[in-house]
Specification:
two-stranded antiparallel ribbon; seven-stranded mixed beta sheet; disordered N terminus
Length: 352
């Protein structure tokens, strides 16, 4: 492209603003690029929807029943992102996952745990780690996957913690626990599976004990400005990921904050750790493409293969800024605290 401008008396090139023709060409190019991206996502839909279980809860349970053994064999007991602090020495991916747990606890200011609930517990990795830090604590974990619950109980018994922690199949939107039961409510990458975010937050608040802490670490779409919507290519990208991983409508971290405020929670904070998890998907893709990974994928089945095929889309979502990896913490007011007026359930979020 030829640069427009003229030289000043000092010999310096003075640039002119691009003319209307250039701006029009740039806009046309962007529209063309968007159309190509959306078209590619439309083609991918034939893959991500193939063999899809129509019932969301059954689909989630089946996904983890099928894939958890492979994940454990390749990556260990922690079924979530790793935390890779910029500038730190190289470390194993398993250590990065442990660091994610520790960083989440420390960032939220957790100094003691008596009784925790692990909502979306996987095979119990987070729970056992928390019990390792606070040996007198007790814990409950819930998952939709019968295989995960059974494996979590088995590993916990083998670790000598069977009397302290139990895991069961249960719905996070209708938890089988009494009100005010847990001083730590933990949700590590399960919120993205929840079809009713207000009810999800309501249940987390309900089982949280007065004075207790809540930690939600989850995938969100970017925060939208007033009247703003996600771009067509962003919507298409999230739809393909959702189809493969059995995710309902996405929301933003701002939506979670509003829900927690409406429930009367206090000391609400959030942070974006997208940069700190950037190496994760590259590491997972590399593992999946190894001989052991490819063999495991084909043995596990089509649902797990689809999950592997959309891994590059997750990486793309982070690089585009469409997907954010966020942490949210809040506290439930103690019984002696002044009641928060206007507490009520927020019933509407913008679906994506």
């Amino acid at each position: 492209m030829q640069v427009k401008g003229k030289f000043s008396s000092t010999g310096r090139l003075v640039h002119h603003a691009p003319g209307p023709g250039f701006c029009l060409r740039a806009q046309t190019a962007r529209r063309g690029q968007t159309q190509v991206q959306v078209s590619l996502m439309d083609l991918a839909k034939s893959v991500t929807t193939l063999g899809m279980v129509p019932d969301l809860k059954k689909g989630i349970a089946n996904f983890y029943d099928e894939s958890s053994e492979l994940w454990e064999g390749m990556w260990g007991a922690h079924m979530h992102h790793g935390y890779y602090k910029k500038g730190e020495a190289a470390k194993s991916n398993e250590q990065a996952q442990i660091d994610m747990i520790n960083h989440s606890l420390d960032w939220a200011g957790v100094v003691d745990v008596t009784n925790m609930v692990d909502v979306g517990c996987g095979i119990g990795g987070s729970t056992r780690h928390v019990l390792g830090r606070w040996p007198r604590a007790r814990a409950q974990g819930i998952t939709l996957s019968p295989k995960q619950a059974a494996r979590a109980n088995e590993l916990t018994r083998l670790a000598g913690l069977g009397d302290q922690a139990q895991f069961q199949v249960a719905d996070a939107l209708a938890q089988p626990f009494s009100d005010d039961s847990f001083d730590l409510v933990w949700s590590m990458e399960s919120g993205e599976h929840m079809p009713n975010k207000p009810k999800f937050v309501n249940e987390l608040v309900r089982v949280c004990a007065p004075g207790g802490k809540m930690i939600i670490v989850t995938w969100c779409h970017r925060v939208l400005g007033p009247g703003e919507s996600l771009r067509p290519e962003e919507v298409a990208l999230l739809e393909r990921i959702s189809e493969a991983y059995y995710l309902p409508a996405w929301c933003s971290v701002a939506d979670y904050t509003k829900l927690l405020e409406a429930e009367g929670m206090v000391n609400i904070r959030n942070d974006d750790w997208s940069e700190e998890v950037t190496p994760f998907w590259g590491a997972v893709i590399k593992t999946a493409l190894s001989g052991k990974g490819l063999t495991g994928l084909f043995t596990a089945g089509w649902t797990t293969i689809k999950g592997a095929l959309v891994m590059p889309l997750m990486a793309q979502g982070f690089s585009m800024g469409t997907i954010s990896f966020v942490a949210i913490t809040a506290e439930k007011p103690s019984r002696s605290a002044t009641a928060v007026s206007g507490k009520g359930l927020v019933s509407e979020l913008t679906p994506v």
